[in-house]
Amino acid sequence: MSMINREVAWRIFAEEFNRSTLETGGTEERSPSYVVTPLGAKVNRVYVVGVLTETENIGTPAEPMWRARVTDPTGTYFISAGQYQPGVATALANLEPPTFVAVVGKANTYKPDEETTLVNLRGELITEVSEKQRDYWILESAKSLKRRLEAISEAANMDEVSVEELVDLGYDANLADGIKKAMDHYGPPSFEKYWRMIEDSLRYILPEYERKTEEPQEKSEDEEDIEEEILKVIEELEDMAEHDNGVEYEKVMNKVMDSENIGQDKFEEAVNSLRSSGKVYEPVLGNLKIIA
To answer: How many other CB atoms are there within 10 angstroms of residue 233's CB atom?
Structure first.
């Protein structure tokens, strides 16, 4: 009987993972199943680092079933953990959102109806981490995404997608097989959208988006007034929002700039200050939310 190796966990952004609707299994007995993403990643396990924004026990104290949301720069991962994942369930019971976490989870698909396929992660490990670790994960995930984009671009230029030709071009056989399956199931992806995803996600690790490590300088009265107005506007817009993913950055900016008569540079400085002091965060790229 052959030995089944433990699958390596992929670093992959939530938006690509959440668009996955294809599941495929191996040919050997007890071989793992895979969720195949639109860019050809054959995912059995995922390693994600992001902001834990929500936890909920939908079971009972005796038989807990935890659900959680972890956001990265592109969207939200949905995590589950029950009695067969006691370590993760205990951690989710004790972690207080929002906080940075690293999660390893098994990729699952489920069908709420015949026409819809959704994906989530069954948690296997979760631990609290630093913002620096989150930034490193973003960089590695962007590199991985770039590699898949380059490979599937080659496949899109072929008359017929060939695993052998992709391998000859230097791509891993597992990725080449995933790209063949993805092209057959999804067709060519929107390349512009995914290149933009790389660009947008890397904004998070630019110096102007990092938390300041030096001692904070005393703020002027004007700076304090701008920050108070930003928090007030976010709160007002959140009250009117139909979702819990924060409010659009541009809506907040336009309203604050009009009321305070300030330029965009001063607004961005104030938002960065609020991020650094732990008063606001971005649950998804381009949205602002107050940390309760």
So the answer is: 20
d(CA 175, CA 149) in angstroms, rounded, equals 11
214-290: CATH topology is Arc Repressor Mutant, subunit A (1.10.10)
pLDDT category at 276 given cuts 50, 70, 90 is low
**How far is it, in rounded angstroms, from Cα 206 to Cα 188?**
31
- All CATH 1.10.10.10 domain ranges of the chain, comma separated, are 214-290
d(CA 2, CA 257): 65
Distance CA 87, CA 105 (A): 12
Contact 100, 51 (CB under 8 A): yes
Q: Give the pTM.
A: 0.68
Which CATH number does the domain 9-203 belong to among 2.40.50.140, 3.40.50.2000, 1.10.8.60, 3.40.50.20?
A: 2.40.50.140
- For 288, what's the count of Cα atoms within 13 Å in the CB-facing half-sphere? 24
- Cα distances from 253 to residues 89, 229, 264, 267, 269, in angstroms, run 39, 10, 8, 7, 12
